[in-house]
């Protein structure tokens, strides 16, 4: 229990076909709220920080928040650096204590991506940390990283060569998923998940989870998606909850920041807990 390696957190979900929410937080309230949901639901949890959040708050402050909030926690949790193309930021976070990173070299040629990912894996191993890898950009921009132009999908053979060469702990393939809010129902290549897992059993990370249907989640999780990334849904919940509270406060001409924080926290806890139920991770922490 408590802070645990990503590989340990994902081994059970991958074997038994459920998934762990990997939620992007961006301040102290959201970090505390998603951890509270994990405790309430007895669920493992992956807390994610974007490069933008690391740079805006600072790795020292973020990690101090993390260690303070996870002291004595009784469910397995991990701290993951999401979509990071910058090697210096990866090094900084690994040295601070992040126990998982996604090295996003998807804009590089596959050969160079593999070469650098091998280096990142070696660096992470020296810190006892895990690495998530990808060879294709996930459509959409997330906290300043990415592109709205869909990347070409690599062949299964190329994906398997990447996995065998780099030995990453988690793999994030492009399957028609996208970051941000979907403008229309996505058509997902779920079979690609099955094909990769059948040839090389590795936990799959599903990016762009905000906005998928429960049926899509269940299907992809049953095929090996053991890590499901959630970012946009949390941001929208945070902002809309705050907006609704402030509109009411304006009508009443009553201004009490702690009440605002409690209202937003409640909605973030509710969202995170509902995802744990849908993904099947609720109650899995004992």
Automatic annotation (TrEMBL):
Binds 2 Zn(2+) ions per subunit. One is catalytic and the other provides a structural contribution. GO terms for molecular function: aldehyde-lyase activity; zinc ion binding. It comes from the Bacteria. InterPro entries: Aldolase_TIM (IPR013785), Class_II_FBP_aldolase (IPR050246), FBA_II (IPR000771). Dihydroxyacetone phosphate binds at residues 180, 208-210, 229-232. Its cofactor is Zn(2+). Keywords: Metal-binding, Zinc. SUPFAM superfamilies: Aldolase (SSF51569). GO terms for biological process: carbohydrate metabolic process. Zn(2+) 2 binds at residues 104, 134. The keyword Metal-binding applies. The active site is at residue 82. Zn(2+) 1 binds at residues 83, 179, 207. This is Fructose-bisphosphate aldolase. It comes from Streptomyces subrutilus. The lineage of its organism: Bacteria, Bacillati, Actinomycetota, Actinomycetes, Kitasatosporales.
């Amino acid at each position: 229990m408590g802070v645990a390696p990503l590989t340990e957190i994902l081994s059970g979900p991958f074997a038994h076909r459920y998934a762990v929410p990997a939620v992007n937080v961006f301040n102290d309230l959201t970090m505390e709220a998603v951890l509270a949901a994990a405790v309430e639901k007895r669920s493992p949890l992956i807390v994610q920080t974007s490069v933008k959040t690391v740079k805006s708050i600072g790795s020292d402050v973020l990690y101090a928040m993390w260690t303070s909030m996870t002291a004595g926690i009784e469910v397995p949790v991990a701290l993951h650096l999401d979509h990071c193309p910058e090697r210096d930021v990866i090094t900084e976070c690994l040295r601070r204590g992040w126990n998982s990173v996604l090295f996003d070299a998807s804009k590089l040629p596959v050969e160079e991506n593999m070469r650098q990912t091998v280096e990142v894996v070696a660096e992470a191993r020296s810190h006892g940390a895990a690495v998530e890898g990808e060879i294709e950009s996930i459509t959409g921009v997330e906290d300043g990283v990415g592109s709205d132009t869909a990347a070409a999908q690599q062949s299964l053979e190329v994906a398997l060569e990447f996995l065998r060469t780099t030995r990453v702990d988690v793999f994030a393939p492009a399957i028609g998923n996208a970051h941000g809010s979907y403008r229309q129902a996505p058509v997902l290549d779920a079979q690609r998940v099955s094909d990769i897992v059948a040839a090389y059993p590795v936990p799959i990370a599903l990016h762009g989870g905000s906005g998928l249907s429960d049926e899509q989640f269940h299907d992809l999780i049953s095929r090996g998606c053991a890590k499901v990334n959630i970012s946009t849904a949390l941001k929208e919940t945070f902002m809309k909850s705050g907006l609704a509270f402030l509109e009411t406060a304006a009508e009443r001409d009553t201004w009490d920041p702690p009440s605002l924080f409690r209202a937003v926290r409640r909605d973030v806890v509710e969202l995170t807990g509902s995802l744990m139920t849908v993904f099947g991770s609720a109650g899995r922490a004992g």
